[in-house]
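Structure first, sequence second, as always.
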């Protein structure tokens, strides 16, 4: 038995089936469950990253931290491209899962799109109406991300 197969067998018996019984091992079922589990963990990681990034931008915008914490803003700005990449991977995996299986999605991207759309609208309204807020790099990131999220969502809706 090779290392990959024995590792897979161990993961299935101990982690997925939660039994140490060596008789409980169906390789095909194990592959399916491991793939589903791995995808679920990836969805969770990507969701956490994207929601945390959204929260950080909300804090940066409403507390106007770009000027008072320029090093932190550099970090937020540097995460823009990985964020968009994570978003793309999330959407692609979700679409593949929906098309290839009857496994229903437990991930509701509609909430995320709604948060981004509302944040884009509210931040633009605030920038337009209140003099202490300005069109700056933080707002630019907000507008770009809001537009990307809404466009990806619309594309997915049209493609269904």
């Amino acid at each position: 038995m090779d290392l990959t197969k024995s590792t897979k067998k161990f993961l299935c018996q101990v982690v997925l089936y939660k039994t140490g019984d060596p008789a409980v091992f169906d390789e095909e079922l194990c592959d399916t469950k491991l793939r589903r589990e791995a995808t679920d963990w990836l969805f969770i990681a990507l969701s956490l990253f994207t929601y945390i990034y959204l929260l950080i931008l909300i804090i940066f915008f409403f507390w106007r931290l770009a000027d008072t914490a320029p090093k932190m803003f550099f970090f937020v700005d540097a995460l823009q491209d990985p964020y968009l990449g994570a978003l793309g991977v999330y959407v692609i995996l979700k679409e593949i899962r929906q098309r290839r299986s009857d496994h229903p999605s437990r991930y509701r991207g509609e909430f995320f799109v709604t948060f981004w759309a509302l944040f884009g609208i509210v931040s633009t309204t605030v920038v337009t109406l209140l003099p202490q807020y300005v069109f700056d790099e933080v707002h630019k990131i907000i507008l770009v991300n809001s537009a990307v999220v809404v466009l990806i969502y619309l594309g997915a809706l049209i493609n269904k």
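Margin note: Residues 38-159 form one domain.
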